[in-house]
Amino acid sequence: MLNQRTRVLRELLFYFYALFVFGSTFSIALAQVSLGISLLLFIIVAAAERYQPFDKSLRWFYGFVGLYILWMLIACLAGKTPLRSILILKEEWLFLTVPIGIYLLSGERYRRRLLNVFTVGVGIFALYGVVQMITGVHWFKSVAPQPGSEFGYVVKGNFPSPMTYGNYFGTATAFLAGLALAGWKDFTRKKRLLLVAIIVLGLLSTLGSYNRGAFLGLLACSIILGLTLPNRKLLLGVAGVIVVAAAVFIASPGVRARLLSNLGKEINPAYEGGRAFIWNNSISIALANPVVGVGQGNFRDEYVKLLRPDIPGIRIRVHAHNDLINIAAIAGIPGMLFFAGMWVIVFRHIILGWRKTGQSPARRQMWVAALAGTVVFAVTSLTEATFADEEVRQMLMFIWAVGLWPWREEEMPDHGTGGNLGGKSS
């Protein structure tokens, strides 16, 4: 049995990690300070309990993470600004969110409470996003949101940009939708209504951010889950999302014109602000530095060399607007392969876990939710370097912890086994 002091430290670890999960919905400062304290407490608790965080069942995941970080470090040291690059590399510490989360999620009581905290946080700031879309309020920021194309304002919540907001809340909404749909039969009526309300708020606020990548990610996620989950309500939900999206598109000429105009620009390789132009130049940087890339923080300096001398500053990019291409440019082809391998392992663990027989409903629910959130994030990263956006990435690390936790066989001492995630038996 654990002594009283260790139990107190573990409770503190939970509360600070829960504050990180909640804070990630609106404040990167609060979230990362809380995560830093959580890490310190986790080290102490793990040592006291002789807990091995890097379980052999997840060796491939941790192996690719280690190779990715190692190669990023080599790329930093080989670049022209090694000190600056290494300082930027410090954000890779966010990977530690995963083992801390796995440890806490292995306790049924902690697991249920962490999911509830995340759900409440998403609900509150999705509601704030909807209010902001209608009224333009910006209680926590000095800069007001931009007016929308035809109605209200472009939602950015408490984040620096609508792009970050849309990527965060699109991913979070998909996660909660997966959680709700996979555990629908086990939830109380009150829990169902709450989740549906939050999911609707999340969809509305994501649409209000005008983030096309997040919206496409939600559509892709809906179709994937609709084809794989034997749930009639889910299929109706998928159809509803598509119908609503089509109605908004058709009924809003300004939005439709804006989207079609932007699409034409994005695929035009001669348009200096479009994705095709950015990707072509970013690939050129990667091919010119195929082994170790240019190092963290040096993308902009290399990118500007490929532009005309009098180009406006707004057209000078700091990343490739695609995660794979961006990693290839700053860490070379090996870095990109390690990064891609890490993603393949995550998807493999989640999908194989979902398909395993004899698993508890709680574990299956976790895998479905994690798959939904990871799919949306992956889609957004096709047109944006979402992995380089710390606000969204720190939330993804929590989602990965949710998806990878069930691969550890043991449960946390003194906290029972598995359980219903907020359902009737809770």
Structural class: mainly alpha
Write down the secondary-structure element order. HHHHHHHHHHHHHHHH
Q: What's the total count of β strands?
A: 0
Distance between the termini: 25 Å
Binned strand content? under 5%
Shape: globular
Task: Tell me, rounded to a whole number, the average pLDDT.
Answer: 88
The whole-angstrom Rg is 22 Å
What helical percentage do the residues reach? Answer: 55-70%
Biggest sheet details: none
| Total of helices | 16
Structure description:
The protein has 426 residues and is mostly helical. It has helices at 4-23, 28-49, 59-78, 82-89, 97-105, 108-135, 162-182, 189-208, 212-228, 232-251, 253-266, 275-288, 299-304, 323-355, 361-380, 390-404. α6 (108-135) packs across α8 (189-208). The longest helix has 33 residues, at 323-355.
Throw out a few tags for this protein.
single chain; 426 residues; mainly alpha; disordered C terminus
What does the secondary structure layout of this molecule look like, with pairings?
Blueprint lengths: L3 H20 L4 H22 L9 H20 L3 H8 L7 H9 L2 H28 L26 H21 L6 H20 L3 H17 L3 H20 L1 H14 L8 H14 L10 H6 L18 H33 L5 H20 L9 H15 L22
Helix pairs in contact: 1-2, 1-6, 3-4, 3-14, 5-16, 6-8, 7-8, 7-9, 7-15, 7-16, 9-10, 9-15, 12-14, 14-15, 15-16
